[in-house]
Write a structure and sequence with these properties.
single chain; TIM Barrel; 14 strands; binds ligand FNR
Length: 374
């Protein structure tokens, strides 16, 4: 059988998946506005990609207004957003799929145009990212220097994660994933270039990991640890991130997370930039999943420039338990079916990744009816 490893069952927390072709979290900037509320178009998109026993990790969802950094990203902090997400989760469950929500705080990658009272974005330290922010009106302007969170404010941010986790439960998700990758807030705390704090959240590796662990524990109070996943990008450079010596930091963080019996660890391989903006941007970095596998006893999901063949090989080598596909899931709503049948894959159009309506979102073709029946 073709790609047999991808189509063997897998237990993730309390769930039995029927295959290992997961959908990676993908920001598409198409929520209903005002209010950044999931709408009918988003329901159509996710239900096109749902499969019986398949896992979707829904796009990064801001946990509060201050957590937001891009326009039209569907949040998980207002009651209308909960109602909107419920229509998405109901549609995925109607076909027997599972859906986790990615909890997201962008930290310094925001812009004051998104912030309550047009305040500066917050971050572990007042260090501006190099590059361009997305303003609330879809313009690109240089990042502002963020305001460093005070020690006492940090517990408020952790409370926002917990509230968002509760909202996700109410919205009918099957679990949540903490976005600890790609240069956003959790990673800004982890990495020494973005965290020069001198309190309990900065300095040593243990201190820099504290925020991630406190967020994880507080979200797990709502969900139980076995329905919480964590996404990390140890070798990533997205959004002006990148730890000079990633191994000691990420070995410690993963070792600590391993004590919590989480649903899964989700690692982004350095073969693709975190946000998939380049085809290949680091050829020199090691394979994260292979490297950290020995210290992660639970389910390990990997993402980053996988093809069906390389995914199957990683599974058969025992490096990973499931593979999350990003760009290929954008352009192939029926990706698991195509892989299982060995059918050709649609190419994606980068120009329609972010923002817009149905074009490049819900209009990628499925296999023909004849092919489906063969
Ligand atoms: C992403 N990626 C991403 N990652 C994440 O953790 N949360 C997110 O919301 C997004 N959003 C997003 C949007 C778009 C348009 C792209 C292309 C990528 C990264 C994504 O999940 C994945 O890790 C990369 O795309 C690499 O995997 P592929 O595309 O090579 O399979």
């Amino acid at each position: 059988m073709r790609d047999q490893f991808l189509f063997s069952p897998l237990t993730v927390g309390p769930y039995r998946l029927s295959h290992r072709v997961a959908m990676a979290p993908l920001t598409r900037m198409r929520a209903g506005r005002p209010g950044d509320i999931p709408r009918a178009l988003n329901v159509e998109y996710y239900s096109q990609r749902a499969t019986p026993g398949g896992l979707i990790i829904a796009e990064g969802s801001p946990i509060s207004e201050a957590a937001k950094g891009m326009p039209a990203t569907p949040g998980i902090y207002s009651s209308n957003q909960v109602i909107g997400w419920r229509t998405v989760t109901d549609a995925v469950h109607a076909v027997g799929g599972r859906i986790f929500l990615q909890l997201w705080h962008v930290g310094r990658i925001s812009h004051s145009s998104h912030q309550p009272g047009a305040a500066l974005p917050v971050a572990p330290s007042a260090i501006a990212a190099i590059g361009n922010a997305f303003t609330a009106t879809f313009e690109r302007v240089p990042f502002e220097t963020p305001r460093a969170l005070t020690t006492s404010e940090i517990s408020g941010v952790i409370d926002s994660y917990q509230k968002a986790a509760r909202n996700a439960l109410e919205a009918g998700f099957d679990g949540v994933e903490i976005h600890g990758a790609n240069g956003y807030l959790v990673e800004q705390f982890l990495q020494s270039r973005t965290n020069v704090r001198v309190d309990a959240y900065g300095g040593s590796i243990a201190n820099r990991t504290r925020f991630l662990l406190e967020v994880t524990r507080s979200v797990a109070e709502v969900w139980g640890t076995d329905r919480v996943g964590v996404r990390l990008s140890p070798f990533g450079i997205a959004n002006d991130s990148g730890e000079v010596e990633p191994l000691p930091l990420y070995s410690f963080a993963i070792h600590e997370l391993a004590k919590l019996n989480l649903a899964y660890l989700h690692l982004i391989e350095p073969r693709a930039s975190g946000a998939g903006q380049a085809e290949v941007d680091r050829k020199d970095a090691p394979t994260a999943s292979g490297l950290f596998r020995p210290i992660w006893p639970g389910v390990l999901i990997a993402a980053g420039n996988y093809t069906p063949a390389s995914a199957n090989a990683a599974l058969s080598d025992g490096w990973v338990d499931a593979v999350a596909f990003g760009r290929l899931f954008i352009s192939n709503p029926d990706l698991p079916e195509r892989i299982r049948k060995g059918e050709p894959l649609n190419a994606y159009n980068r120009a329609t990744f972010y923002g817009g309506e149905a074009e490049g979102y819900t209009d990628y073709p499925r296999l023909g009816v004849a092919a489906l029946e063969s």
